Sequence to fold (219 residues):
Amino acid sequence: MNLPNKNAAFLSLAVGLAVAGCTTTGSPVAVTQLPEGSQLAANTTYATQPDEKFTVPAIDVAEIDPKNIRQQVNYQTDEPPGTIVIDTKSRFIYLVREGGKAMRYGVGVGREGLEFKGTAKVGFKREWPHWTPTPAMIAREPKRYARWAKGMDGGIGNPLGARALYLFKDGKDTLFRIHGTNEPSTIGHAVSSGCIRMMNQDVIDLYRRVPSGSKVIVR
Fold:
């Protein structure tokens, strides 16, 4: 839709904006220029968050593909509001809302052969989660992961970032997570060891919106 001026573009985006472990092998995200007003809104959304247990640094939106910026979009689905739909092909999370809308977030996904697909639930959620590489990760890359076999405490350097939502299927932990990342340039790529990674500001937003037990569909 063509908006009549920059102010309308800003208001449109501003409305949308208001409303386990992984590592990276990705390449830089392609950059497209944001409209002036939209960039201002996005800068606010991805500003420093000093009130967290660990200060979340600002993200330079000039380094983010505009399509990956959090925004409300039209989204037709039979799934009820509150459902999380992860489209691994397009690399978006959609949080279904009322009225044919969804909140859309850009994500990084698992490399081919490592990703989870199917239906799960959010078993539980954690702020600034502890991270422990899975036995498969340690076996695959022992030099990289063996030193963390007993885990890493939460913090800015932790691969799970500011929040984690733990996916369970049939009452069992799938070992796959929706979580933050300290590498926002990986958003939009298939780079992780199976998990769904989000920018820290985005995973904090999603965490606030969904309770444990929420349905998750990974396509």
